[in-house]
């Protein structure tokens, strides 16, 4: 998750989303190799240290939408250096570009249900003002959401494919209204005017119902259903105390709304409510949060994702019987991003693991063998040179147990102690999870232990843990990172005097806080577009975050009534205490953490004569997606760490590239589910 991320728009007909962002991956087009598996042999690992270019050479793939006849599949990839949309046969074969930019990202959304047209979305170099485009079979394209300074998102198609639904904030920049478009000709009408500032989450396939959410606080939200014919509204989240409710999917006949809620315990379970009687029924429970669920086009299958102790567990059920449907057993990772074809005869999914960047598969549900459509990992990289992560825990200063994901380099031993990094995710309520991470694998390959801390306030470990940082930023969550440092110092293969801190977005704020509020604890800090001044950040949030602005103020602080507190907890006003080398990376178009946040902290720390390296990317926003920038940014992070954490402060030869700008992953590795 990214800093202060708004509640995502749930797609009524969406398939399950993985816990992570899209991954880089490299493959000959249409390759059908077997999944990468660790090769354990007598070779000392790593057999060699790979360059950043070799890690970024892997080609990212994400998303999946079947064509109407299910002979082809639509997906996104960054093989051209930026993200574009492609199609390929479900049997494997050559990729056909749908978009072919070398400078601007486009992401595949879906095929039209009844023909070969394709929907894609794009913004302007990371400004997050997404528009929705249709691309005709002849390659011509049309912006379906024209206009300046608006943000649009696809919600879903009607059951018969004759209409589709889109939300935009064109009428009022604070609120998203719902529009129904005709698939034939694109005529549209506004079917819901969102004057109350709720967050649209799902539309029923029959077009009768709209589900909307309302964030009351970090750990409390409500769920409403509106009957679009007359605008009547029903609250379906009656509860006492703090609880989160989230719409997941309507049944194809429009009779039921499936939703998740944690009012009955620490974790979210899946339920459904009948839209005639308003009676509720349990559907599925797990020992962890059920974080996503969807129904197949005809309602035959229910698929869901469980956030299982930092791993994504996808489960598929027969809706009528409730019995679980076996998914393919595959090596080297977890199934993610499951998509069910409209025929309900086949599924597409990704396989992802520590040593396995996401690869796209298709399998028939009649028991056929999975077909691997991509081969992600750069063939120059030996999978056995990468490392497996592990879940570890330590007790913090007050006895609270803190879960973490640990990456240990092959070369780290008690005889060969290595430097280490505390990696802090974004959010604040993000989570570092087990997944392939190009950035962390790059650092581990070059001899750095990485501990991805899930400090108090992280999602995935129950609502009490999630709320434990409210109003405490710059204090208790930060103190958890100091305990993480102590934990690293207890490992016999870590050099106890060479421990740094790194993070992006809210994690970048934690980096700056550690250096400003606890000087002397960490040897270096790497801040990837982190908040330095909460007052300015909270006063400059995008207008379309209005639906949860008050909840955000309760989480962080209200700039109108708690200004002194926000100044006290903002590193910028204490920058004179930062006395160790600092690296800052920033996207010029970032709407969440604006560029002055980084400009000011860099200037303030430089006044003290402290070494500061500042990297700005003019064509990125809150997350750096372009390969040229990833090469420059990741390479410079390693060079900085080699100089000031591993080395003696004398710059070594650059790891790669030259110049003053480049790119890095988002607030977490470019290829992972970790932080954001």
UniProtKB/TrEMBL annotation:
Chain spans, region Disordered: 651-676
Residues spanning the signal sequence: 1-27
Gene Ontology biological process: proteolysis
Coiled coil: none
UniProt xrefs under Pfam families: PD40, Peptidase_S9, Peptidase_S9_N
Domain Peptidase S9A N-terminal: from-to ranges: 203-373
Gene3D superfamilies: alpha/beta hydrolase (3.40.50.1820), TolB, C-terminal domain (2.120.10.30)
Record-annotated Peptidase S9 prolyl oligopeptidase catalytic domain positions: 437-647
Keywords: Acetylation, Hydrolase, Protease, Serine protease, Signal
Protease keyword on record: yes
PROSITE patterns: HEMOCYANIN_2 (PS00210), PRO_ENDOPEP_SER (PS00708)
A Gene Ontology molecular function term of the record: serine-type endopeptidase activity
Function of the molecule: This enzyme catalyzes the hydrolysis of the N-terminal peptide bond of an N-acetylated peptide to generate an N-acetylated amino acid and a peptide with a free N-terminus. It preferentially cleaves off Ac-Ala, Ac-Met and Ac-Ser. Also, involved in the degradation of oxidized and glycated proteins.
Family indicated by similarity: Belongs to the peptidase S9A family.
Protein name per the record: Acyl-peptide hydrolase
Organism: Marilutibacter aestuarii
